[in-house]
């Protein structure tokens, strides 16, 4: 019974954080929508200027959520994957998508 209560609380916490994480991703995609017609050089410069701080905020949010998430849950796996992609693709300013 207690295990079910813990799982229910974790699921509720995940549902409450969804709008916030979606808004963070949407802010990144808004930058991409605005710059998609520019040259590669211009896109890179604007990503460096506008997206890096958004990505750092997203990474901080994901780390915070990960600390509150059960280790083997699907949410934990998704967060771990996203954070790993951030680190692997760090050479590119749009690190989450690797693009």
Briefly, what is this?
The chain has 4 helices and no strands. The chain has helices spanning 2-35, 40-50, 52-67, 74-88.
Q: Can you walk through the features of this model?
A:
Helix content is 77%, strand content 0%. The chain contains 4 helices and no strands. The protein has helices at residues 2-35, 40-50, 52-67, 74-88. Mean pLDDT is 81; it is low at 93-99.
The N- to C-terminal Cα distance equals: 45 Å
Oligomer kind: single chain
**Elements, N to C (H/E):** HHHH
Spans of at least 5 consecutive residues whose pLDDT stays below 50 are 93-99
Structural class: mainly alpha
What percent of the residues sit in helical stretches (DSSP H or I)? over 70%
Gyration radius from CA atoms, angstroms? 16 Å
Q: Number of helix segments?
A: 4
Please give the number of β-strands.
0
pLDDT average, as an integer? 81
Strand content: under 5%
Instruction: Based on Cα principal axes, name the global outline.
Output: elongated
Q: Main beta sheet: strand number and arrangement?
A: none
């Amino acid at each position: 019974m207690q295990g079910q209560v813990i799982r229910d609380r974790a699921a509720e916490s995940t549902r409450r954080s969804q709008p916030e994480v979606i808004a963070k991703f949407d802010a990144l995609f808004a930058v991409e929508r605005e710059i998609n017609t520019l040259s590669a050089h211009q896109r890179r410069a604007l990503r460096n200027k506008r997206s890096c701080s958004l990505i750092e905020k997203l990474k901080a949010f994901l780390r915070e959520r990960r600390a509150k998430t059960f280790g083997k849950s699907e949410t934990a796996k998704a967060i771990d994957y996203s954070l790993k992609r951030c680190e692997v693709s760090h050479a590119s300013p749009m690190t989450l998508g690797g693009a």
